[in-house]
Amino acid sequence: MASKHKLNFIDSKIREIRKNNLYRKLQYGKTQGSHITINGKKLLNLCSNDYLGIPTSTIQIKQLQSSSRLVSGNDESYKKLEKSLAKHKSQQNSLIFPTGYMANLGVISSVAQKGDVILSDELNHASIIEACKLSDAKVTIYKHNDMDDLQKKLKVKGKNKFIITEGIFSMDGDFSSLKQITEIAEKSKAITIVDDAHGDFVVGSDGKGTPNYFRVSKKIDVYISSLSKGLGSFGGYVASQNNVIDLCINKSKSFIYTSALPSFLINYTTKRFESNRERQKIKLEKNIKQLSTGLKQIGFKINSKTHIIPIIIGNEKTAMDFGKFLKDNGVFAQPIRYPTVPKNQARLRISVTAWLTANDIESALNVFEKALKKFRTIQSSSS
Ligand SMILES: Cc1ncc(COP(=O)(O)O)c(C=O)c1O
What we know:
This protein is α/β, with parallel strands linked by helices. It contains 13 helices and 14 strands.
């Protein structure tokens, strides 16, 4: 009789995930503008983070530098982009990481140390949660955007206190209460860290992000973001004062012990940064208005004022069925389930992009109308 394989215990883990309707499967797709083709079927893409939909330019690859930035990977192309990103955030300096996820890990774990306290919004992204665990600071979670709770929890003793929040929350699409957060931080001398992966390049004057939108840019001490969303390129970065950047170069493991992004990507990002972003931003704003007004008219309760529009469904299985119905009818909007969002708060996270035309949105709305009729039990509400 064949002996049991040492890794057979994994099967029961997978069975448990399936039992809870939380099983995830990779699917291959080819994206082209507003559409994505999956298994030969062309679908309208309502879950891309390429919000600005900057028209693609071609990339020329000559040679990859293939090394850490502290060894031989620090291509000259970084200098220009980091200078631009620092200026974009009105900060002294900036530093590019391979991804936004790695920027959070590297920055937060470097600046927060033993004896410090981190106050983190309960809906912060997984990369912030992991980063907090990596730091030696005491981590306290405050209720989502609840300023009373934040103030109460800030009373705890600590050498340095950090308040960490997203700018626009990735799964709910709501703005963080940045104005109040900066006022509270000022009073208690807390350091403010904002992860603006979803607001950067998309909101605020010249796409300067959520702090600019609330006119509190100068009160943000450490600004972390992704280059893979609004700008539609790849990578992450931190913008802050010189000593923070210096510390990250010297202490952030996710910066030091990994290969640098290749120069063709840095040049590509620079091109996109210098492109006519304002024109794309205006298109995006028009699309957000058309889609959210249309969804409300159909009967969905939409509170989001941003390009991230969640339709909260609740039950995981219903959310999967809802997503399948959309897909069968030509619309791709992936259901989001636990652990990305809390249990029983599964949702369709619709992201609006400038790629969509008015006709695209019209046809998506027709499908949503049919879906709402079919799934009468859904809560049809959003944050
Ligand atoms: C709030 C937030 N921070 C960070 C990240 C990670 O960014 P990246 O995709 O560049 O790793 C994401 C991505 O989903 C995000 O939503």
